[in-house]
């Protein structure tokens, strides 16, 4: 398992849990607004050895109760199932972040009750998905959406909004894509030095509120996240 880093404590990444976040290297998308662009390259760095991570989890038993697995794209890792099994054997619940491009792996993990919560990114409307994700996985993403909408695991969909990439029309389509979802969050892009395309910028709050109003027609429980 190619572990790039660990955030030792988070109260935000895994809803309802005191958790740590583990960052796995490698991604099959290349989103121009990605905050973790250093994780896209799949070349192993072994920054943190897998056994050292398990030792850390053992030392936090009784303090932490969850592990949030993110990336990169965690489901790109061939040993992800075994990795999760070992984490759960230590008594931790697991939250998984995914871009939705590996629906068969996602379904297997859900059916075997290996994940407790899934957060899936919805990059954009279908017609702008390739532009926003830097990859072509429309059928896979559509299947992953369908898997989560079946409500066999707690989940959320989320979209990071970029001024240059998203519009009202996109959120009309996104609402239809995930109609009936239990949770959907609109997040505001925040530029930093790690972002691939430095020309991208954040939308204004008024636009975000307009997007939320559109989506709520299809997902009544939709909300803004991390926006004052």
Walk me through what this model shows.
This protein has 228 residues and is an alpha/beta fold. The chain has a single domain, classed as TIM Barrel (Alpha-Beta Barrel). The chain contains seven helices and eight strands; from the N terminus they run ββαβαβαβααβαβαβ. An eight-stranded mixed sheet has the order 1-2-3-4-5-6-7-8, covered by helices on one side. α1 links the parallel β2 and β3. α6 packs parallel to α7 (205-215).
Structural class of the helix and strand makeup? alpha/beta
CATH class: Alpha Beta
Total discrete domains:
1
The total of beta strands comes to: 8
Radius of gyration: 17 Å
Overall average pLDDT: 94
Order of helices and strands: EEHEHEHEHHEHEHE
CATH topology: TIM Barrel
Largest sheet: 8 strands, mixed
What is the count of helical runs?
A: 7
- In percent, how much strand structure appears in the residues? 15-25%
Q: Which strands sit side by side, in order, in the main sheet?
A: 1-2-3-4-5-6-7-8
Identify the overall geometry.
globular
Kindly report the name of the CATH homologous superfamily: Aldolase class I
Percentage of residues assigned to helices = 25-40%
CATH architecture: Alpha-Beta Barrel
Low-confidence stretches: none
Distance between the termini: 37 Å
